[in-house]
Amino acid sequence: MAPAAMTIDVEDYYHVHAFKNSIQRSEWPKMESRVEANTHRMLDLFAETGSKATFFTLGCVAADHPEIVKRIVADGHELASHGWDHWAVFDQDRATFLTDITRAKHTLEDIGGTAVKGYRAASFSIDERSPWAYDALAEAGYLYSSSSHPIAHDAYGDPNADRGPHNTKSGVVEIPVITATIGKRRVPAGGGGFFRLLPLGWFTRAHRQAITEGLTPNFYLHPWEIDPEQPRIKDAPLKSRFRHYVNLSKCELKLKRLLHTATWTRMDEAYHGWIGGTERSDAQTGHGFASNAG
Ligand SMILES: [Zn+2]
Questions:
Q1: Strand intervals (E) in the chain
Q2: From ligand 1's centre to the CA of 276, what distance in Å?
Q3: Inside any domain, residue 294
Q4: Dist. CA 117–CA 277, nearest whole Å
Q5: Handedness of CA 7, 10, 13, 16 (dihedral sign)
Q6: What are the C-alpha distances in Å from 289 to residues 10, 48, 79, 277, 283?
Q7: I want to staple 86 with a disulfide (CB 3.0 to 4.6 A). Which of 31, 48, 122, 176 is the partner?
Q8: Residue 291 located in a structural domain
Q9: 280, 99 in Cβ contact below 8 A?
């Protein structure tokens, strides 16, 4: 089977961008945390099926739950960064963004004892409002980003953006979430709420189509998507609640079935030709993290 990249954005249910007007950041410490247990369940599922993945982990989650970071690395998965605080990139200026992504990278590397090469923006939020983002990522020592979802969506995305991996001017490689096409139309195939809403066969067909086009599937989910018991955010907008809560109870089994449809692996293995090259080694990307952290 052709390789495909499985990616998990490690954040809690109350970090999501769609709830930002319903839950203030100052309330985060008071919320019931469920990310640790949910991430362990995902890691169990990957261990059962022999799958590997890249875990784009929030810095604030890593600092509060170092055990999951250590298990991600110990289980042979790729540790990557989802920034520190789940700010949309286009809501920050360059200096704030650079501080956020540097702090996240160093914290993850210190806890995990491994170099962090990859970054995913909160809510795929690198766009024309943040033209400095890739330069800042290069300055912080990242080699690749997976922050583009090239599809028509009201909250993010550009349906005309490149569907495959591409080099940016800064040297950072952008690897978009996978999409499929029906005629001239781009359709979702990359995961998240679409995965909970559409049948599994939609995704297996779309991934096969992508592979015949020479693309490697890049699929994503969140730990909270396999947690139907999570506390409900009652005053969030109806559309946000629908997208967040639809079919949560079926997602874990569906993910398990998906894991049998391809050889799921880490981003740096699935896209080795793009980001696994020897020209920039771990030694050059790390900041002198503790190699025996554990
Ligand atoms: Zn996120």
A1: 3-10, 54-57, 78-81, 118-119, 144-145, 166-167, 173-174, 179-182, 185-188, 218-221, 263-265
A2: 24
A3: no
A4: 12
A5: negative
A6: 21, 31, 13, 21, 10
A7: 122
A8: no
A9: no
Q: State the distance from the centre of ligand 1 to the C-alpha of 16, rounded, in angstroms.
A: 6
In total, the chain counts a number of residues equal to: 294
The enclosing domain of 150 has a CATH number of 3.20.20.370
For 173-197, write each residue's pLDDT tens digit.
Answer: 999 999 999 998 999 999 999 999 9
Q: How many A from CA of 34 to the centre of ligand 1?
A: 15
- Any domain includes 290: no
Q: 3 - beta bridge partners? A: 263
Place of tokens 């989802």: 82
Q: For residue 183, how far is its CA from the centre of ligand 1 (angstroms)?
A: 30
The helix/strand/coil state of 191 is strand
Instruction: Report the range of poorest mean pLDDT among 100-109, 165-174, 205-214, 231-240.
Output: 231-240
Rounded to 5 degrees, what are φ and ψ at 83?
80, 180
Spacing, Cα 247 to ligand 1 middle (Å): 19
**Tens digit of each residue's pLDDT (9 = 90 or more) over 204-222:** 999 999 999 999 999 999 9
Any domain includes 141: yes
DSSP-derived pairing of the beta strands 173-174 and 166-167? antiparallel
State which residues form the domain around 249. Answer: 3-285
Domain count, the chain: 1
Distances 173 to 50, 68, 118, 157 between C-alpha atoms, Å? 27, 27, 9, 17
